[in-house]
Amino acid sequence: MSMSSVAILWAQYGPYHFARAAALKQQAGPSRVHALELANRSSDYGWNRSGQTVDLITLCPGAVAERLPFREVFHRARRTFAELKIKTCLLPGYAPKQSLAALLAAKSLGLRTVMMNESHAGTARARGAGRWVKRRLVRWFDSAIVGGAPQKRYYASLGMPAEKIFTGYDVVDNDYFVQKADEVGSRKAEIRNRYGLPGRYFLSLGRFVAKKNLAVLIQAYHRFRLVNPLTETHLVLVGSGEEEPKLRSLCEELHLPVHDHSVLRSSSSNVRPLTDDLHNPGVHFYGFRQVEENPAFYALADAFILPSLWEEWGLVANEAMASGLPVVVSETAGCAEDLLEPCESLENLPPQTAVQMAKAGLSAKVRINGFVFNPRSYEELSRVMLVLDALPGLRSVMGQASRQIIEKFSCEKFALNALRAIEVATTETVSRAGNGSPPIQLHGNEGSEAGCSRRVSLR
């Protein structure tokens, strides 16, 4: 497809963004796609970006993306779009204000815009006038690439024609996780010893914030241990965040042993001291880890659990599936409908497994590659854990299914569907007024913005 210059912009690039941008460059031609970020620092993520090979333009070097002023983003984005002769922009929606500023900058130049988004009805907070405003903002985009079926339904409900909405936005570099997991699998004893990992464990990986619902996961693990006191299966938590002190205290209240592997040890007197007794199943805290280390945790786990109260998507589920794990995902997570495929019949499961599901009351929750569950019910999650713990054959079958399913959610798919969205955005001849987009009339003195953007090559 012949294509004019395209910008693909996010607030800050991390491993997921580099992989998608690289795939788009490969499909469209490197000279036609410009990778842009608002800033190279973030208050939420501490990504290691060394070794990346995508040329990147940082609009506001040294700044924190979430703290950038609206007008500064508008002027810097507008100037960069003009300098690069961009015709189409792939943008991360219209919120927060920095994303809206980039959208307005593009529209002020008459550029075509493709929305990249993963919100769905379960994460929507706007009501009344707020929803009306959101519908108006959505109409400023000429097409969209979103996560999956729930996201497509949501943006269609906000007024974007379904034929302009493409799926496949939420992907990771599957090949990387497949390769690394297989490498770890060939060195199991060495890797377990390096990280102090138990022989068997359930894994959860992500930020320790309220929406991740890790307290319910810990409560479910506690009940799992009460029902099955002879288990040798541990719970491993990889991540960090504001909820960590509460989670450690909860473990103490429930008399769950805490195994501390984080760099910074907790100073709380309410937390059990570090124990190296891996024969005493408990909760392991590993702190934040870079993407290069995560395959070690995935590859040696029995199953991956995403317990979020709400989640736009949940890319860690993609990573776990590429690593060959069964996944247990909150039914309110944005990825649950697309990544966990229904079983046509319980009879297709291994022998006796259907009986086990019925006894556990999980017949409606089982999927080909894992389970969904009510994130507010630690009791339901504990029953899922009991079934998976008792059936190694089921874990193996589900893990194999995970790898087959995730092949349909690749960076190549993102690139191809992004190109389809670009084609729709650029070939239509709808006028701005006919598309429901009001004229953009933001002006200001841009003379002080000279040299505001910087091109960096992360090689």
Folded structure, characterized:
The strands form two sheets. An eight-stranded mixed β-sheet has the order 7-6-5-4-1-2-3-16, sandwiched between helices. With 459 residues, the protein is an alpha/beta fold. It has helices spanning 15-28, 70-83, 97-108, 129-138, 149-157, 174-185, 188-195, 214-227, 244-253, 294-299, 315-322, 336-339, 353-360, 378-390, 392-406, 411-427, and strands at 6-10, 33-37, 55-58, 88-91, 112-117, 143-146, 165-167, 201-205, 234-238, 258-260, 283-285, 303-306, 327-330, 366-367, 370-373, 454-457. The chain has 16 helices and 16 strands. It is 38% helix and 14% strand. The chain folds into two domains: 6-171 and 410-446, 3-Layer(aba) Sandwich (Rossmann fold); 174-406, Rossmann fold.
